[in-house]
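Example A, followed by Example B.
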Amino acid sequence: MTTPTDSDRDLVARVQAGDKQAFDVLVLRYQQRLVKLITRYVRDPQEALDVAQEAFIRAYRAIPNFRGESSFYTWLYRIGVNTAKNHLVAQGRRPPDSDVDAEDAERFDINTVLRDQDTPEAVFHRDEVERTVIEAIEALPEELRTAVTLRELEGLSYQEIAQAMECPVGTVRSRIFRAREAIDKRLRQLTGEA
């Protein structure tokens, strides 16, 4: 009997043994996070839902080959990013240069309309800060970029990141600290406080 409290590894093993209901539980568990991830690449919400569905189909087809060397979500995350990039290419659009698109909905709500108090200078400065943060994240080494993305954009705990990256929690803390330091340095350069 499959229950929503089963671990990802148990559910994956059940899917690999032919239990389709176990995959439904994984879809329910990760659907919102995957759609949020894909929305960073494919801006249209309805289109992002379609791409997420395609990513889950690809994951279902590939799950017999999943060996558990990373967490299920890390594996699904990679499938989601690749599916989104492939979709953009198929549509004749250019995918982002980096797997990390820092336009985090919590920080940079793309649906925000200009308010009366937003002067052109304030809007320009905010856009410049956003661009600087994105460039700083894209310039990070892969291990730092992954750690800070999983923490700041995906909201994973240090323990979850350690499991996903298969390293000690102390290493995760160090990577996130170094990533934040690099981003802060770029922002200080922008504001002339370097």
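Example B, a separate protein, is given below in the same form.
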Amino acid sequence: MPRPRPAALVERRRFRSLEICAGAGAQALGLERAGFDPVLVIDSKSDACSTIRLNRPGWEVLCLDITRFDPHAHSEVLGVDLISGGLPRVKATATVGRAEDAEERRILKAAIRLMSAVRPKALLLENVPDLFESPDFSDDRSWIEAELRHAGYHPNWKVLNAADFGVPQNRRSSFLVALEDPYQAAFSWPEPDKLPPPTVGQVLGASMSAHSWPGAERWIKGADRIAPALVGGSDRRGGADLGPTGSKKAWASLGVNGSSLGNELPEADLPEDHHPKLTVDQAAMIQSIPEDWQFFGGKTSRYRQIGHAMPPPLAAAVGHAVAAALRS
């Protein structure tokens, strides 16, 4: 019988991953903190690929639609420990009205089918809460679970809120974690933080005060709650704003003008009751993306990369749970 490995050595073990639909790399960054090093990172958008290369030049980045990816042409991904991805937001079948709206489901199916070709130990996918919670997605869940079980994996579903993991934002996502037999019994979902998340005022206060705006102190006191979920919007329609009418009203109650993104922080000559617009950098702070993580592209492209991202602390929390199961 082999001798048990010392706990310190087990904790230091790192894992190999394949990151698909990577966006700006925020999820991969969180998983890196949890012990996962990507052997390949894939996204279809050139600005997002450039963002990842800008921040992690040592990562191999492939700018390609995942439905066209052939894992056998990239042997380094075969048998990785984890396939992970934040997939495009799937719409209920009954509401799909345009050919392009079906693209998200096509990507979801491609991601699930990768499991049989790559044979990782685990899968981690993030999407809209309705994918797990809504009866409109019951056929999708049944197909996903049947495919995974046929391939030898056990599916686990959970909706988590980023606010429960230190992110100043009410952002709920569904997670699918699937594991092979030896690891399933050891898996458990991460527990929420014991401390409440910081408020918008606490997170953005220093930046709002940076240019001596006289209303900064008053604004910080009024922004005494977490933010609504940032909405990246569609690449096919519209510009950069803080989401639909309900989201903009929620931002207005925090003293923020959500009609568009700002170019500069509030200046000293603005009135005290001014409602500033968020800059792209401030949006990244609401997502708990590190300040040194740079984004490539124009303002709208950079904001969409941020709005579509999974906050790294949430990715790290789920990643630690998967890593603990794989280390068992």
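On Example B: The CA atoms of residues 164 and 285 lie 16 Å apart.
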